[in-house]
Design brief:
Bound molecules: phenylalanine
Order of helices and strands: HHHHHEEHHEHEEHEEEHEHH
CATH architecture of the largest domain: 2-Layer Sandwich
Radius of gyration: 40 Å
Strand order of the largest sheet: 1-4-5-9-8-7-6
Shape: rod-shaped
CATH class of the largest domain: Alpha Beta
Distance between the termini: 83 Å
Oligomer: single chain
CATH topology of the largest domain: BirA Bifunctional Protein, domain 2
Number of strands: 9
Helix content: 40-55%
Number of helices: 12
Length: 339
């Protein structure tokens, strides 16, 4: 009897199961009513009384070991199943959501498209810029208060290096390397030291334009801007130009469009005036042409610059500027259909 128990014990120890069926077969072999252990139990009454104690102990040991082994193998299966075995590889995968274009990119591309059709090329330049290209080349006098006008971020330890406050810096880079005719738009991010709120941020995006050739006049500027406004906001859109000041243009103007939210009737967005300002513009100051290597006696030009956030607000009525830089996908998903 002891020999039989020993043999079963080695069998139990060596037992393995590759799947649930094999495991069940093991259970039946050892632990079921008709299994090997029960058969031994039935034989127990035939064991001579002086051996009963030892045989009984070994028999119990065998029963416990068999149960432990079965439990152990079962657990192994359960873990495996939660790994790969339980996965249905034929099931269709979860749909992978397509990303959406950022509203500012959508609007920036729209602006670029309109000017591209008029023959403007894209010019780009660095965001960390030297004082010359951001200010001096654009007719800002060394201590001109206009430098404060744009709340500049100075790059520490290098007072002449700044974060560009407008993409006009790219215009001056184009002028210093290219002779007219020049027809470029300069999209890009710009930085100004402003407290962050729903209406202002320390960075935003611009698209500025520059056109230089012989006999370019204010009429050309006005016509191009009117066309832009109609393409961007609809053919009923009206524009008006108000005199303004920029160091790099003379004369300078700010352009309003008829409020496309109320159609010019007056609403809270246009502060009940029927008009909203969307850009600054003017004829390039001859000093700027000369400072950048273009002969102001031969050439004239116009320039304009607009904020992409502002145009986007007008198109999509985003109430809080901060939404543009928070990467909240609930906001970004709203523009799924826009492009
Ligand atoms: N650079 C100006 C700004 O950032 C905009 C502008 C560009 C005005 C070109 C006139 C001409 O506010």
């Amino acid at each position: 009897m002891i020999a039989k128990i020993e043999q079963l014990l080695t069998e139990v120890e060596a037992a393995t199961a590759a799947n649930a069926e094999e495991l069940e077969a093991l259970r039946i072999k050892f632990l079921s009513k008709k299994g090997a252990i029960n058969a031994l139990m039935a034989d127990f009454r035939n064991v001579p009384p002086e051996q009963k104690k030892e045989v009984g102990m070994r028999l119990n040991e065998l029963k416990d070991k068999a149960q432990e082994k079965i439990n152990f193998l079962k657990e192994q299966f359960e873990n495996q199943e939660s790994g790969t075995e339980g996965i249905d590889l034929t099931r269709t995968s979860y749909p992978i959501g397509l990303g959406t274009r950022h509203p500012l990119s959508i609007v920036k591309n729209e602006i670029i498209d309109i000017f591209a059709r008029l023959g403007f090329c894209i010019a780009e330049g660095p965001e960390v810029e030297d004082d010359w290209h951001v200010f001096s080349a654009l007719n800002f006098a060394p201590d001109h208060p206009a430098r404060d006008m744009q709340d500049t971020f100075f790059v520490e330890a290098q007072p002449d290096i700044v974060l560009r406050t407008h993409t006009s810096s790219v215009q001056s880079r184009v002028m210093e390397t290219t002779q007219p005719p020049i027809r470029v738009i300069c999209p890009g991010r710009v930085y100004r030291n402003e407290a962050i709120s729903a209406r202002a941020h320390c960075f935003f995006h611009q698209v500025e334009g520059l056109y230089i050739d012989k006999e370019v006049s204010f009429t050309d500027l006005k016509q191009v801007l009117l066309l832009f406004a109609k393409e961007m906001f609809g053919s009923d859109t009206k524009i008006r130009l108000r005199p303004s000041y920029f160091p790099f243009t003379e004369p300078s103007a700010e352009m309003d469009i008829s409020c496309n939210i109320c159609g010019g009737k007056g609403c809270s967005f246009c502060k009940h005036t029927g008009w909203v300002e969307i850009l600054g513009c003017g004829m390039v100051d001859p000093n700027v042409l000369d400072a950048n290597g273009i002969d102001s006696k031969l050439y004239s030009g116009y320039a304009f610059g607009m904020g992409v956030e502002r145009i986007t607000n007008l198109k999509y009525q985003v109430k809080d500027l901060r939404l543009f830089s928070e990467n909240d996908t609930r906001f970004l998903r709203e523009f799924e259909a826009a492009w």
